[in-house]
Amino acid sequence: MKKLLIIEDNWMMAHVIDEVALSLDIDVTGIATSWNEATELLVEQIPDFVILDININGSVDGIEVARRLKEKEIPFLFLTAYKDLEIIKEATKLSPLSYLIKPITPENLMATFLLSIQKLAQKTPPTNNYEYQYTIDENGIIYKNKVLFNLPKGERRVLGLLLKNLGYPVKYELFFSYDDDGTLDTINEATLRNIIVKLRKKCPDLTITNIKDVGYIVNFAH
Fold this sequence. Notes:
Elements: E1 3-7, H1 11-23, E2 27-32, H2 35-44, E3 49-53, H3 62-71, E4 76-80, H4 85-92, E5 99-101, H5 106-123, E6 134-137, E7 140-143, E8 146-149, H6 153-164, E9 170-171, H7 172-175, H8 189-202, E10 206-211, E11 215-220
Parallel strand pairs: 1-2, 1-3, 3-4, 4-5
Antiparallel strand pairs: 6-7, 7-8, 9-11, 10-11
Helix pairs in contact: 1-5, 6-8
């Protein structure tokens, strides 16, 4: 589960960000309206990334906050109403994960978070080798060359798709596509939901999250 710090002085916007993060199983470590508040939260817990507005409360603006985050090697993305080209150029020089201009929609924010998580996955080397030691074969799940449990064909196929795309969303249509032998897979929406429920019980170290109107994404619980 990725951890996110929100630095935004507009309460309504901060609430929207919090709700979207929750829908993607992103843990919000806190909401700050200024750099002073953010520093207090950073002492308590270091997030995986930060979303910040350029225009925030206090004497330190979002551009300077981004510089300080960069020194701490904490990735960030900008959220702002500024459309001035010079400000955009100054902001992009800091290599943010993304740059969103208000007004935004929950859908745009969701897509930006998913892309940011993908970028983080590409930049971050694996810290737990066990995450990459799962394989799927005709017997079910194999972890460190040991069969953990047998899986029915449908569960094996769904889990295999999720693990092959670890940290990336798998669209619904991929679960409903043709099987290896060329026949149409029998998985439908109701069956898929049932399979996900079973996999969550069988794989407690996995976090399988539904992304509305998109599909499912799997990560390892930490």
